């Protein structure tokens, strides 16, 4: 009798553990990032840069986007020469902890790593906010990073550029995630609504 009770207790505990694990796994896999479409209002202000400056800064941003779209490692040296000064301090902050990349060669290596292993970066170049003061401009925009079968994640992109012999060169870049996973309460509400819709 005692061994039967023990077997029932063990079976119950195993069942509860499996159910809890299944729920947590489903919750984790079911967390859907909120895309940047919810943040289009960010770009309602186009900034205070004069039209000529805005066009030139956006031209540099388009070259940057083109590099991230093509991800051709054979062009990384040309990409860097077009967009970054070799003899000045440059800094790139990535989305992950510890991604504080300083210096021309390290930034080059970091971007090459992005091209090899990060997702498809799509920045909203045309609607970017561009502000400027003399030979310094700063840019803010939104975008997404897609990775194959996973949903795209929203990002914010900011940069500071300086003018050098008629070219606008990047001195500081920051990528930042701009999404949030659904909370457990939101997931439960969605599951309950879906469950109540089933006949």
Topology:
Elements: H1 2-30, H2 51-70, H3 76-83, E1 91-93, E2 100-102, H4 104-117, E3 120-123, E4 129-133, E5 136-147, E6 150-164, E7 167-177, H5 184-197
Parallel strand pairs: 1-7
Antiparallel strand pairs: 1-2, 3-5, 4-5, 5-6, 6-7
Largest sheet: 7 strands, mixed
Using the coordinates shown, work out and report the CATH topology of the largest domain. Nuclear Transport Factor 2, Chain: A
Structural domain count? 2
Order of helices and strands: HHHEEHEEEEEH
Report the count of strand segments. 7
**Relative strand content:** 25-35%
- Which whole number gives the mean pLDDT? 83
Q: Between the first and last Cα atoms, what is the distance in angstroms?
A: 43 Å
Summarize the amount of helix as a percent range. Answer: 40-55%
- Supply the CATH architecture of the largest domain: Roll
Class inferred from helices and paired strands: alpha+beta
Q: Which value, in Å, is the CA radius of gyration?
A: 24 Å
CATH level-1 class of the largest domain: Alpha Beta
Number of helices: 5
Poorly predicted runs are 18-36
Tell me, what's the shape? globular
Q: How would you characterize the overall build of this protein?
A:
The protein is of the alpha+beta class. It has 2 domains: 1-31; 36-177, Roll (Nuclear Transport Factor 2, Chain: A), CATH 3.10.450. It has helices at 2-30, 51-70, 76-83, 104-117, 184-197; strands spanning 91-93, 100-102, 120-123, 129-133, 136-147, 150-164, 167-177. The longest helix is centred in the N-terminal third of the chain and has 29 residues, at 2-30. The protein is globular. The two termini are 43 Å apart.
């Amino acid at each position: 009798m005692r061994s039967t009770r023990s077997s029932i207790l063990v079976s119950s505990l195993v069942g509860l553990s499996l159910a809890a694990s299944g729920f947590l796994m489903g919750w984790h896999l079911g967390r859907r990032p909120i895309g940047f479409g919810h943040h289009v209002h960010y770009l309602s202000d186009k900034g205070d840069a004069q039209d000529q400056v805005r066009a030139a800064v956006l031209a540099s941003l388009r070259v940057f986007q083109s590099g991230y779209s093509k991800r051709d490692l054979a062009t990384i040296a040309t990409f860097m020469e077009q967009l970054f000064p070799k003899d000045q301090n440059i800094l790139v902050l990535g989305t992950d902890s510890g991604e504080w990349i300083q210096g021309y060669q390290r930034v080059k290596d970091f971007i090459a790593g992005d091209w090899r292993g990060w997702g498809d970066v799509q920045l909203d170049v045309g609607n970017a906010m561009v502000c400027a003061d003399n030979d310094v401009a700063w840019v803010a925009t939104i975008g997404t990073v897609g990775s194959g079968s996973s949903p795209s994640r929203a990002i914010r992109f900011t940069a500071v550029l300086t003018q050098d012999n008629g070219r606008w060169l990047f001195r500081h870049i920051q990528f930042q995630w701009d999404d949030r996973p659904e909370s457990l309460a939101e997931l439960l509400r969605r599951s309950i609504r879906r469950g109540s819709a089933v006949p």
